[in-house]
Write a sequence for this structure.
């Protein structure tokens, strides 16, 4: 589903990624590790199509509406409520049975009570859970997660473990994380950016 | 139809955000009235109609700039633009939705500015209102595109006026001409031409400004 | 990368520019008879108008390269478009300078708002100067290339619209419209001189363009090689 050959990305004169090769088959799970600044976020942005490679090749067999992207930032409007944010994304991503799906996701991640609160007033962990809902909302085939566990408490982290466990195998994953031990069992391949 | 649907969803979102935070429109209102007052002191007492009209247009231009500088702030700061760009909708829908929002802000500012101008300086005729309406389209269309460009760079508050002002000189000519001469039709037609050309250009090229 | 062809191209262009401009200057100052009304000072027309037309050509070329960039997404067009804008701005400044000199000799002022050419070039200069500000403030990369290309396309649309606006503005501000007494038809000798100067200026622009482009490409290649060695 994703094929990278000699992939490289520069920002101005700074070379962030250099000569990366990997392949992720359909249903695969690529675990990306590396220290801060090694280009994990850049790699995910490249796979999402937000950035284009400046050298090498990258082929991603997924349409725009089939990608679920979780970045460092939650990608949510701070002045809108959780419900309004998800509704906006739901409409733009043409999610069928939008209201039901939003309700189900909010419940699954324990956000139902907070649904009418402004995102700006949510704690970091709650916002992260909401961002997960946003990424999963349209049932994407390819999931690109950048540090999905950051800010999550144990209960929420276990929720995420369950979610990943149930989806791995049928969906394709690329996950960059500082806590690889949580997803090691699911990973079919690993890439270390050092 | 989904294109229009997306546009309306996005426009509604911008208006809702402004209603909640209420920071851009009140600032624009206060700014335009303050500017008109400053102009009173800057003009000699026997200033011509053209001079006074001209300064109104300058005030409107800079008020528009004030609103446009804030146009993509949330999308850039929170990187929400990435989320919008990844959606399967047409990227120009983002542009058009934002244009509608910007136009709403401009109209709100003008609803205060034009009566203030009539109060402080001289009466406002239908030609001026028509010219302002046409100019709003051009200002919003071009301004939104340039605001997206400026938002990607450093010093965006400095960059946007530099990009914006040369491009909107024709709007000033059209606007002042429509309200200060005997043949407003020609200038209004010119504003219409400007709107058509630059709205189409902005629509077509927005995609390239927000993607790589 | 075969640079010999490009070197040849450059040498030919530079030689052509040199010869044509030398010939054109000689023609303009010594051969062509004085213009009936304006007299000797009209001769700057043979420089001013070709320079202006060359500037337009550069901006048009930049817009074409910009369109190619957006169409094919090939990165090399970014440098080509940028260099063309650079040339356009240089010739634009020259247009303003020669136009100002002509205004001074014709009407006694270094600047006249009534001259359509001068005002148009002033607006274009501001526009394309902002192009450089845009490039300066965005990080080099595909995003900057895209934005610069879009901006260059806007510039080309701005040229006719600005010209219309300036014409309309004349009725507004009622200045005395300053037009040079250029006869509607140029005589044979005038036409020849003009064409020689025009082709000379275009060759000059072309030569500078190829020169700068090659230089920048070599810089980029050098940087790439340095990176690869690290």
């Amino acid at each position: 589903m994703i094929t990278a050959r000699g992939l490289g990305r520069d920002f101005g004169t700074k070379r962030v990624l250099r000569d990366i090769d990997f392949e992720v088959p359909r249903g695969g799970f690529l675990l990306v590790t590396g220290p801060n600044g090694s280009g994990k976020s850049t790699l995910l942005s490249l796979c999402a199509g937000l950035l284009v490679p400046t050298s090498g090749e990258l082929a991603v067999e997924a349409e725009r509406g089939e990608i679920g992207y979780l970045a460092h930032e939650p990608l949510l409007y701070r002045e809108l409520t959780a419900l309004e944010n998800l509704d906006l994304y739901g409409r733009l991503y043409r999610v069928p049975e939008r209201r039901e799906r939003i309700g189900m996701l909010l419940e699954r991640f324990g956000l139902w009570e907070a649904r009418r609160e402004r995102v700006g007033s949510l704690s970091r962990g709650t916002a992260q859970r909401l961002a997960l809902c946003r990424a999963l909302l349209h049932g994407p085939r390819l999931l690109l997660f950048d540090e999905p566990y950051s800010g999550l408490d144990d209960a929420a982290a276990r929720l995420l473990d369950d979610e990943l466990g149930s989806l791995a195998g049928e969906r394709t994953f690329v996950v960059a994380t500082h806590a690889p031990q949580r997803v090691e069992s699911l990973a079919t391949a690993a890439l270390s950016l050092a | 139809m989904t294109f229009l649907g997306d546009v309306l969803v996005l426009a509604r979102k911008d208006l809702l955000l402004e209603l909640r935070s209420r920071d851009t429109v009140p600032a624009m209102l206060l700014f335009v009235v303050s500017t008109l007052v400053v102009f009173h002191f800057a003009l000699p007492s026997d200033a011509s109609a053209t001079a006074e009209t001209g300064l109104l247009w300058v005030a409107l231009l800079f008020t528009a700039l004030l609103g446009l500088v804030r146009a993509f702030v949330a999308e850039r700061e929170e990187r929400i633009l990435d989320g919008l760009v990844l959606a399967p909708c047409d990227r120009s829908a983002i542009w058009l939705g934002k244009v509608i929002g910007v136009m709403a802000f401009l109209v709100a500012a003008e609803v205060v500015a034009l009566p203030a101008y009539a109060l402080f300086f001289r009466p406002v005729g239908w030609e001026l209102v028509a010219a302002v309406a046409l100019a709003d389209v051009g200002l919003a269309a071009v301004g939104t595109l340039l605001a997206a460009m400026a938002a990607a760079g450093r010093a965006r508050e400095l960059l946007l006026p530099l990009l914006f002002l040369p491009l909107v000189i024709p709007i000033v000519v059209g606007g002042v001409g429509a309200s200060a001469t005997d043949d407003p039709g020609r200038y209004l037609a010119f504003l219409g031409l400007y709107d058509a050309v630059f709205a189409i250009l902005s629509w077509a090229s927005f995609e390239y400004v927000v993607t790589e | 990368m075969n640079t010999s062809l490009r070197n040849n191209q450059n040498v030919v262009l530079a030689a052509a520019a040199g010869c044509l401009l030398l010939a054109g200057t000689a023609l303009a100052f010594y051969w062509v008879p004085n213009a009936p009304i304006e007299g000797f000072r009209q001769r700057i027309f043979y420089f001013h108008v070709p320079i202006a037309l060359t500037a337009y050509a550069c901006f048009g070329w930049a817009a074409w390269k910009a369109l190619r960039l957006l169409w094919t997404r090939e990165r090399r067009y970014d440098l080509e478009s940028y260099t063309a804008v650079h040339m356009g701005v240089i010739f634009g400044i020259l247009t303003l300078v020669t136009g100002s000199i002509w205004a001074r000799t014709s009407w006694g002022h270094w600047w006249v708002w009534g001259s359509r050419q001068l005002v148009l070039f002033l607006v274009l200069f501001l526009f394309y100067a902002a192009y450089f500000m845009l490039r300066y403030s965005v990080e080099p990369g595909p995003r900057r290339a895209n934005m610069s290309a879009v901006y260059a396309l806007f510039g080309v649309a701005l040229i006719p619209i600005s010209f219309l606006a300036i014409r309309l503005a004349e009725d507004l501000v009622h200045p005395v419209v300053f037009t040079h007494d250029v006869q509607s038809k140029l005589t044979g000798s005038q036409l020849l001189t003009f064409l020689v100067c025009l082709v000379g200026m275009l060759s000059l622009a072309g030569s500078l363009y190829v020169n700068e482009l090659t230089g920048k490409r070599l810089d980029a290649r050098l940087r790439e090689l340095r990176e690869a060695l690290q």
Remarks:
- The longest helix of chain C spans residues 188-229.
- The CA atoms of residues 98 and 145 of chain C lie 32 Å apart.
- The radius of gyration of chain C is 20 Å.
- The mean pLDDT of chain C is 87.
